[in-house]
């Protein structure tokens, strides 16, 4: 487990609580949030592996910039 994987456990606990307490929309949103968190954590792991292998680092997220604000 990496230093950021704990957040996936927290999100799962929150989803369980939401489902058990009739908060269906929140539970669905937490599913989406979990997918985004997993993608970003995976991206960080890939970047770290690339750097260890001497490959050039890519700037940005392979998750397509999800969750990032863009300005015109």
TrEMBL record:
What domain of life is recorded for the organism? Bacteria
**Annotated region Disordered: where?**
41-72
Q: Where is the composition biased (Gly residues)?
A: 62-72
The Polar residues compositionally biased stretches are 50-61
Q: What is this protein called?
A: Uncharacterized protein
Native source organism of the sequence: Sedimentitalea todarodis
């Amino acid at each position: 487990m990496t230093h950021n994987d704990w957040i996936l456990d927290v999100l799962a606990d929150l989803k369980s609580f939401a489902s058990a307490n009739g908060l269906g929309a929140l539970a669905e949103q937490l599913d989406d949030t979990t997918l985004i968190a997993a993608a970003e954590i995976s991206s960080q792991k890939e970047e770290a592996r690339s750097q260890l292998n001497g490959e050039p680092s890519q700037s940005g997220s392979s998750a397509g910039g999800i969750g990032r604000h863009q300005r015109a």
